[in-house]
TrEMBL record:
Amino acids binding NAD(+): 30, 35, 86, 125, 161, 271, 333
GO biological process: polysaccharide biosynthetic process; UDP-glucuronate biosynthetic process
Organism of derivation: Bosea lathyri
Domain of life, source organism: Bacteria
Protein name (record): UDP-glucose 6-dehydrogenase
One Pfam family here: UDPG_MGDP_dh_N
EC number in record: 1.1.1.22
Family: Belongs to the UDP-glucose/GDP-mannose dehydrogenase family.
Residues the record marks as active site: 268 (nucleophile)
Known catalytic reactions: UDP-alpha-D-glucose + 2 NAD(+) + H2O = UDP-alpha-D-glucuronate + 2 NADH + 3 H(+)
Cross-referenced NCBIfam families: NDP-sugDHase
Pathway note: Nucleotide-sugar biosynthesis; UDP-alpha-D-glucuronate biosynthesis; UDP-alpha-D-glucuronate from UDP-alpha-D-glucose: step 1/1
Enzyme class: oxidoreductase
Positions with a binding annotation for substrate: 158-161, 210, 257-261, 265, 326
Length: 420
């Protein structure tokens, strides 16, 4: 394919080098005359291992040309890839001026008589909704009824500086956002030699991917450093603790506990987080991330209550499937489901609870004390399977995954463990 790349920074130049290595013809476009001159001569304006060699080979083979204006170069291109910067504005939001300007340039330059659409691919990190609310309107305003001569795609990059070329050819994943969430022929062609999981989705999910990834990376660094500070103050080897922690790929370094859904609870997590907060404060370490966990979890509990009751007025009948911390357990200590039940009752809903693992007369110790201090009317709330099969409810809150074993006639079901 012939591909125009707008923006010859780290992402754009790496893409140019890697695409030409695969035999594509690339036109690099940038407002910086220096970048254009150096790249056109096969010299990399940035330091990235292996990139200058790729650019030199591309120029030698006639596969890479560069210019400060793409108006007359885009007509015979199959694809345009936008890699311009989206720096932070004074309020923290991305500055979208470069995105808007490049979109306007492409829309103005594209041939309205094209027989096949120009695939315009955005790789810059952009706020969810940018294609629908900024980019598409620019093309529509410029092209009017000819908007079909372009197809818009969002394809975030996952490149780390200093290993960008390796990451380009071996990414952790490929995410492609299209207007209908379906595959795109030219993107399939672009990535045919790359082996990685491919996710086709709508624009907004694809646009949000980089925010989630990068914020989680920041979360990991911050968490590790807070733990490291506590270790140092306690005379503990932080490196040994890290070695032990990352060795657990079943729970610690895994997909577990990362699916948006229910709040955390039970006899371990809340207790140990609070204890770590105390330890950190006791040794004089400010662990703001750890300190925020309980507060954030409490906020999430209330959010879930508002989320599941938003379409049901107080007085409606509600069935909760599961009250214990985990299914097939009778451990109620700090179960977020107990908080949900308490909020429902306080708000005036008619509540019934189905949890076959629970028998109030069998509860002992702290488990017994916790439930009768937080939900003293539990025995009157528990119902049998036969009871719920004979009725329908205004709302069914599934906390345990039990809904799939019951008929849909029991009422509209909300799975609290899956935020959809």
């Amino acid at each position: 394919m012939k591909i125009a790349i707008y923006g010859l920074g780290y992402v754009g130049l790496t893409a140019a080098g890697c695409l030409t290595k695969e035999g594509h013809e690339v036109v690099g476009i940038d407002v910086s005359e220096r970048k254009v001159a150096e790249a056109a001569a096969g010299i990399s304006p940035i330091k990235e291992p292996g990139l200058e060699e790729l650019l030199g080979e591309a120029v030698g083979k006639g596969l890479l040309t560069c210019t400060t204006s793409g108006a007359d170069r885009i007509q015979d291109c199959d694809m345009a890839i936008v890699c311009v910067g989206t720096p932070s504005g004074s309020d923290g939001a991305h500055n979208m001026s470069f995105i808007a300007e490049v979109s306007r340039q492409i829309a103005t330059s594209v041939d309205r008589k094209r027989t096949t659409p120009l695939t315009v691919v955005y790789r810059s990190t952009i706020r969810p909704g940018t294609i629908d609310e900024l980019i598409r309107p620019i093309f529509k305003a410029t092209l009017g009824g000819d908007v079909g001569v372009v197809e818009l795609v969002y394809n975030p990059e996952f490149l780390r500086e200093a290993v960008a070329i390796r990451d380009y050819f071996a990414p952790p994943k490929i995410v492609i956002g299209t207007h209908d969430g379906k595959s795109n022929e030219r993107m399939e062609e672009l990535n045919k030699n790359i082996s990685a999981p491919v996710f086709y989705t709508g624009y907004r999910e694809a646009e949000f991917t980089k925010f989630v990834d990068n914020t989680f990376h920041a979360l990991k660094v911050t968490f590790a450093n807070e733990i490291g500070r506590i270790c140092l103050e306690l005379g503990i080897s932080a490196s040994k603790v890290h070695e032990i922690f990352v060795a657990d790929t079943k729970l610690n370094i895994s997909p577990y506990y990362l699916r948006p859904g229910g709040a955390f609870g039970g006899s371990c997590l809340p207790k140990d987080v609070r204890a770590l907060q105390y330890i950190a404060a006791d040794v004089g370490v400010h662990a703001q991330l750890v300190d925020s966990l309980i507060r954030s979890n409490d906020t999430h509990k209330h959010y879930l209550f508002e989320h599941v009751t938003q379409r049901l007025a107080p007085g409606g009948s509600v069935l909760m499937l599961g009250l214990a911390f985990k299914r097939n357990s009778d451990d109620l200590r700090e179960s977020p489901n107990v908080d949900m039940a308490r909020k429902l009752l306080q708000a005036g809903y008619k509540l019934a609870i189905f949890d076959p693992a629970l028998e109030p007369s069998h509860l002992v110790g702290q488990n017994l004390g916790y439930i009768f201090s937080h939900l003293p009317g539990l025995p009157d709330l528990l119902v049998s399977r036969d009871f719920i099969l004979e009725r329908s409810f205004d709302l069914v809150i599934d906390t345990s995954g039990a809904a799939k074993e019951l008929p849909a006639s029991i009422g509209p079901i909300v799975d609290i463990n899956t935020l959809a």
